[in-house]
């Protein structure tokens, strides 16, 4: 089980959180074409290594968070609020 350090509530079990997806993907604008929106919804990479992800502390403060997590080891290196920035370390 992952222990995610919520900036508001402290370290909590993964069961209190909902995974919301890749935080590096940008939603296409309203004037975008159908193909761009299709790719946004369905075309995803499955990276091996560090990834910035959206998580919501659903059973706690309800905040949306950005989490820097390694997809192989599940190590969590950093957590910030939704407006914060996280950089993926070089491989």
UniProtKB/TrEMBL annotation:
Q: Which InterPro entries match?
A: SoxD, SoxD_sf
Keywords, in A-Z order: Oxidoreductase
Report the EC number(s), separated by commas if there are several: 1.5.3.1
UniProt-recorded Gene Ontology molecular function terms: sarcosine oxidase activity
KW Oxidoreductase (keyword) present? yes
Record-linked Gene3D superfamilies: Folate-binding superfamily
* Residue stretches spanning the membrane: none
Q: In its UniProt record, which GO terms are filed under biological process?
A: tetrahydrofolate metabolic process
Leader sequence range is none
Q: What is this protein called?
A: Sarcosine oxidase subunit delta
Q: What is the lineage of its organism?
A: Bacteria, Pseudomonadati, Pseudomonadota, Alphaproteobacteria, Acetobacterales
